[in-house]
Design brief:
Layout (H helix, E strand, L loop, with lengths): L14 E8 L2 E10 L12 E6 L4 E4 L2
Antiparallel strand pairs: 1-2, 2-3, 3-4
Length: about 60
C-alpha cells in the first residue's frame, strides 16, 4: 500500500491507555496516561486526560 503514511496527532504524557471518544461530542477523546513509577519522566503526571481534536491540546482532568 504505497502512499499511505501515519503521523503523530499529539505527544501525550506517559503511555495512553483506554482511549475513548466522548459520548455525544466527537471533538474530545478521553484517555488514561500512566507509566512505571520507577521510570516516569520528571514533571509527567499519571491521570485522566482529555484531548481536544480540533486544537490538539491536552488537559489533565484527574
Amino acid at each position: 500500500m504505497a502512499g499511505i503514511a501515519a503521523e503523530t496527532l499529539v505527544d501525550v504524557p506517559l503511555m495512553a491507555w483506554g482511549i475513548h471518544e466522548a459520548p455525544g461530542n466527537l471533538s474530545y477523546i478521553y484517555f488514561c496516561a500512566s507509566g512505571s513509577y520507577k521510570n516516569r519522566p520528571p514533571g509527567e503526571v499519571a491521570g485522566l486526560y482529555r484531548l481536544d481534536i480540533s486544537t490538539h491540546s491536552i488537559e489533565l482532568l484527574v
